[in-house]
Structures are given as structure tokens and as C-alpha cells.
Amino acid sequence: MICNPIDIASRTSPELSLLIESIINRLDSDEPVTLSAVRSFIENELPAEIGEDEHLHHFDLNESVVDELDALIDNFGESAAAIDFVSVYASEALTRAIETVMGDENRENLPTLATVRDALADGLAARMVGDGILEDDEAELLMAEIEELIARFDPDALAEDFLRYE
Fold it and tell me: Where are the beta strands (DSSP E) in 29-82?
């Protein structure tokens, strides 16, 4: 997998990121969904209950997500893959696991997604359940989630880049 050295998803607001991800999931396409396809969907197919005035404005800005999307199209082109603009974060449970691995004093380097996967395979989730940090049902999903992140990004991607801060 070729990784873009610029994290273009970081240029996307959380509101637009969620909207793009939702549209990608709605479109049934064998081809990658582009920014122009997202724009077209918003113009022509967005459900009426999600109006421009109601849900397409940023929480604290006057600019709408449509304006933001248009700016992305201006900067990156209509054919840019929309998925590149979706921010991805770990679940709360995986965030706790990543933080646990990051807090290991014996670690010399920042942990990667592969490091976290290895720690989970070595019983980290079970220890976290035993310590009351995770529930059993949360622990069961961690390996699948970390594998999905590795497949989508790279085993050597820094795990801290996926931490969820809420």
C-alpha cells in the first residue's frame, strides 16, 4: 500500500469526514468513490430530511460542509478518492489498548499498529479485562478492529495517530 506523506484526512472537518464516510457506505460501486461523486450525491440524492440548513453546517462555523467539500475539490481535484478524506479513529476500547501499550516503560519506540496487534495476540485484552479496563464484549472485537486498521493503512503506522480523544 502506498501511503500519502500528507495526511489529507486531517484537512477534513469531523462533520465532513462523517458525511463522506456515510455517502461512501451508501453508494454501491466497484470503483473508488470520488469527491465529485460525493458532491453529486449531496446535490441530487441526499435524503430530504438532511437539509443544508439543518445538518450540513459546521457546529461552530459559518461555512457549510458543502463549501468545505468544494474547497477540497478545488485543491485536490474532482477525481480524488473520497476515502482519503475520511478520518479514522480507534474505538474507545482500542484507544484504551493503544494507550496501555504506549504506557509500557520497557518500550523504546512509539508503538505501531503491528505492535498493538502483537500485544493483543499476547493476551493484552485478557489482562485489561482482568484489570477492569475493558468489558469482555469489548475485548472480543479488538483483534478484528486492529486487523482492519492494518489492512486499510499499514502495519507500521503509528498507533497513536488513531487515538480517539473525546
Answer: none
Residue whose entry in the numeric block shows the C-alpha cell 475539490: 73
pLDDT tens for each residue of 118-142 = 999 999 999 999 999 999 988 888 9
Q: What is the pLDDT of residue 10?
A: 66
66 in Cβ contact with 42 (< 8 Å): yes
Q: CB of 98 within 8 A of CB of 162?
A: yes
Query: 57: how many CB neighbours lie within 10 A of its CB?
Result: 16
Amino acid at 6: I
Residue written as cell 479488538? 142
Q: Where are the domains of the chain?
A: 8-85, 92-162
Instruction: Classify the phi-psi angles of 133: left when phi > 0, otherwise alpha if psi is within -120 to 50, otherwise beta.
Output: alpha
E strand or H helix that includes residue 11: none
What cell does 76 get?
Answer: 485536490
* Buried b or exposed e, range 81-102, using 16+ CB within 10 angstroms: ebebbbbebbeebbbbbbebbb
The C-alpha atoms of residue 77 and residue 107 are separated, in whole angstroms, by 42
Alpha helices by DSSP H, listed for 56-91, are: 65-76
Closest C-alpha among 58, 60, 61, 73 to residue 16: 58
